[in-house]
Design brief:
The structure is a single chain. It contains five helices and 23 strands. It is mainly beta. The strands form five sheets. Strands 1, 2, 3, 4, 6 and 8 form a six-stranded mixed beta sheet that branches. Strands 14-13-16-21-18-19 form a six-stranded mixed beta sheet, with no helix packed on it. The longest helix is centred in the first third of the chain and has 15 residues. Bound molecules: copper (II) ion (CU). The site of copper (II) ion has 6 residues, from loops. The site of copper (II) ion (CU) has 6 residues, from loops.
């Protein structure tokens, strides 16, 4: 591994030396056993719970109570309080790296790099001034080094070097969530290996709620009835001479082709939650008329823009910051590459809504879209077909 001093100057002159060192270190791990799970089964998909124990709260994280947050597969969020009922705590989470085969479209399979087996990784939820105690597990069945850079954390590299683990290792790091908002986390081993891991799926998000909960544009409390985590993922899968997507025997085997392709900045696939059409049809999200739904959307690598066809962003926390007042009634809203954004909408009419990237080519020629099936009573006052299709008036 490159030394920490060098890694800390991530935009400085150490770049080439660091990249070389990292690539060499990664090559050293290639050849370890590989695994080939083909389903997107999360490592932890039990009923979400948070259990607490320990001493009374104070400002010393070594004496705060610890709670274990059971992470769940997106688009679900772990069970959490919208308004914190107690003082700061140490929230323990475990992310287990799984290098796994993942069929991202009917004709394309990649060696995905995942936290807990899903693309994106699980949403973590804490409150401002909680401590996140992350244990990163890199099973010996993996082939590469991995780590986590938390955009929500404060400190060098978001903890990337501190959390770096080789196959067969685990590490525990604690950081304080001082900024409220929604934030991306992603693997960042250094140099070109950073985008390699990120565009193979190794990213997720964390929500740091204000302790007294979300507020609307006037400072009044906002409660959501349900919340969904949707991440857009760009993939770069090369084709062979016959026009078929290539298959590889290990993650590292694809790296040369991927680097060539992603330098074109033209993704082969753009999908929501890791797999084409994973949030449409039978997998559509659900809501009832009257529900206030919080949508958290991240893009770890590339700019996008979201839109809810048939609705609006009642509230949107642009840039993901809960320190700012939310904007109101946007028709579409940006998600800058390397960020997450939270949007709240109260469904007022039943039907099937599309939640999509409003570059409509990326939504429909690619697969950057989700569906929400909303049940309830239709309100004619909001929309009514005054006269059905009929012959032209003469
Ligand atoms: Cu990684």
């Amino acid at each position: 591994m490159a030394d920490q001093t060098c890694l800390a100057s991530s935009h400085g002159g150490c770049f080439q030396m660091r990249s070389l060192a990292l690539i060499l270190s990664i090559c050293a791990f290639v050849g370890f056993n590989t695994q080939s799970a083909i389903s997107q089964t999360p490592a932890s998909d039990a009923t979400p719970t948070m259990s607490g124990s320990g001493a009374s709260p104070n400002n010393n994280p070594d004496r705060l109570k610890h709670v274990v947050e059971q992470l769940v597969a997106p688009p679900r969020l772990p069970e959490h309080e919208q308004v914190a009922s107690g003082g700061s705590s140490v929230v323990e989470v475990t992310l287990t790296v799984q290098e796994k085969k993942l069929q991202i479209a009917p004709d394309a399979t990649i060696w995905a790099m995942t936290y807990n087996g899903t693309v994106p990784g699980p949403m973590i939820v804490v409150h401002q001034d909680d401590y996140v105690q992350i244990t990163l597990v890199n099973p010996s069945t993996n082939t590469l080094i991995h780590n986590v850079d938390f955009h929500a954390a404060t400190g060098a590299e978001g903890g990337a070097t501190m959390t770096t683990v080789a196959p067969g290792q685990q590490v525990t790091v604690r950081w304080k969530a001082i900024k409220p908002g929604v934030f991306v986390y992603h693997c960042a081993p250094g140099g070109l290996v950073v985008p390699l891991h990120v565009v193979l799926g190794m990213n997720g998000a964390i929500m740091v709620l204000p302790r007294d909960g979300l507020k609307d544009e006037n400072g009044n409390p906002v409660h959501y009835d349900k919340a969904y985590y949707i991440a857009e993922q760009d993939y770069y899968v090369s084709k062979d001479e016959n026009g078929n997507y290539k298959k590889y025997n290990s993650p590292a085997e694809a790296f040369g082709d991927m680097i060539q392709l992603f330098k074109t900045l033209k993704p082969s696939h753009i999908v929501f939650n890791g797999i084409a059409n994973s949030l449409t049809g039978d997998h559509a999200l659900t809501a009832n008329v009257g529900d206030k739904v919080l949508f958290i959307t991240s893009q770890a690598n590339r700019d996008t823009r979201l839109h809810l066809i048939g609705g609006h962003a009642d509230l949107v926390w642009l840039g993901g910051s809960f320190s700012d007042k939310p904007a109101t009634d946007y028709e579409s809203w940006p998600v800058v590459g390397g960020s997450a954004v939270a949007m709240l909408y109260q469904f007022r009419e039943p039907g099937t809504y599309l939640y999509l990237n409003h570059n409509l080519i990326e939504a429909f020629a690619f697969d950057a879209r989700a569906e929400i099936t909303v049940k309830g009573e239709w309100n004619d006052d909001l929309m009514k077909q005054v006269s059905p299709p009929r012959p032209l008036d003469e």
